[in-house]
Write a structure and sequence with these properties.
This protein is 22% helix and 15% strand. With 185 residues, it is α+β, with helices and mostly antiparallel strands.
């Protein structure tokens, strides 16, 4: 999952709140194209990116048993508030506690006093930006989890998937409102 997440965060998907289009920036489709390529490499034949930047895929059924459809959905864009270009993720391996100084901009410090949940991460690896850009963990971490789940479901044939209710994956280009966009409803 970490490898996949690190691959996704370096793709600039910064949104543009002033744009009337969907996606709000064409570069958001760059991540969409990568997701489609990865889904197809897993054997998901119908994986595709539509003209609006939505990624769709269906994990095929392997049983006749009827179960509900599961939809995995996440967004690909990152906030317009901070640059999404030239992201340099940093891994703090085996976090020992204390504040985390971001190496690209030492004035950017993740302080335990401001983020007390860091105390629960001692011994874990933590991924941050270098301090010069937004990391984009919201929601590229979600995308990485969805892609890992899809790979798991495809890889393990003992997990039964209904022919009447296959699992579906949809990645939206944006979490922001698309009401003013050209995306049909």
């Amino acid at each position: 999952m970490t490898e996949r997440f690190l691959r996704y965060v370096v793709i600039d998907t910064q949104s543009d709140p002033a744009s009337p289009t969907c996606p709000s920036t064409e570069k958001q489709k760059d991540l969409g194209r990568l997701l489609v390529t990865e889904l197809q490499a897993m054997g998901i034949r119908d994986a595709h990116l539509d003209e609006y930047g939505y990624v769709y895929a269906t994990i095929p059924a392997n049983t006749d048993r009827q179960v509900p459809v599961i939809c995995f959905c996440s967004h690909m864009d990152t906030s317009p508030d901070c640059s999404g270009k030239d992201v340099k993720p940093q891994i703090v391996s085996n976090y020992r506690g204390g504040d985390i100084v971001l190496p690209g901009d030492p004035t950017q410090i993740i302080r335990v006093a401001d983020h007390p949940a860091l105390k629960d991460q001692i011994g874990n690896d933590i991924i941050t930006t270098d301090g010069t850009t937004l990391l984009g963990a919201d929601n590229k971490a979600g995308l990485a989890e969805i892609m890992d789940a899809a790979h798991f479901l495809i890889s393990w044939s003992t997990i039964r998937r209904s022919s009447t209710a296959p699992s579906r994956s949809c990645s939206r280009p944006t979490k922001r409102s698309v009401a003013a966009s050209t995306r049909p409803t």
